[in-house]
Amino acid sequence: MTDFATRHEPVSDLFDLPAASDVDKYRLTEEQVAFFHENGYVSGIRVLTDAQCDALCEQLQPLFQPEHPGRELWYEYHTNESPDPTQVLFHALGAWRITSGFHDILWNPAFTVPASQLLDGAVRFWHDQLFCKPSRHGGVVAWHQDYSYWTRTVPMAHLTCWIGLDDTDEANGCLQYVPGSHKWTLLPITGLAGDMNAIRKVVSDEQWEALKKPTPIVLQRGEAAFHHPLMVHGSRENRTDRQRRAVVINTVRDGVQSDSDEPLLEGVPAIPKGEPLSGTFFPLLYEPRQP
């Protein structure tokens, strides 16, 4: 089984890599960047075509079976991370190592160029995730902040890109944000799956009221939302006849360092505390051209 982590360039023709002079078509507008900084997110960014979504879904389908080839390459793999077996949340980290499509999406300029703008610098890979909810009994992703799981890296110069492989809306469990919550302090971890109310014990009354009025992020398949590492977000059940599949790409601004002498991801060699992320498992994805 090939470990695609050893390849730091696209291995298929699923995505075009334009010349440096042609990347401006992927740039966010000044208004979109300003909206991100004010609200903590920006959404509705087209990063995949329908054909690319189809190809990724085809490669995703075998990964739902625990005995698939390459299973030893995952950092984490949960056929159901929900505590309730009747509410299924498939969650896995490391698909970029296993399939060509989930590997090559990391170099997709429709993703890397906006990411560079929002990070204000060169884009380095942190890790990927799959979040999938089956039809009729898809589970919950509880309210959380991404950086609460990433404090083993410093400084907090991270960015998350959430890409829908299906149309997503409130009925099938779309992503939901609490605008402005990226200005809150770092909250303790209260769990990733199952209970949307678990966060209540670590937020103020004012924050709890804001959590009661989130913004649903309705996306067409192939569209993305980018969010700040402190953005409070989650998603509710899928009770429709439609699947809700998503790939998430987590990145850092080049120069972010390890803050631990332990491995940053399961099965990955440790990067000594104080050393910047680099090497096989944390490739540089995009460096903006100098003006």
UniProtKB/TrEMBL annotation:
It comes from the Bacteria. Coiled coil: none annotated. One of its GO terms (molecular function) is iron ion binding. It holds the Pfam family PhyH. Its cofactor is Fe(2+). Keywords: Dioxygenase, Oxidoreductase. Signal peptide: none annotated. This is Phytanoyl-CoA dioxygenase (PhyH). It comes from Maioricimonas rarisocia.
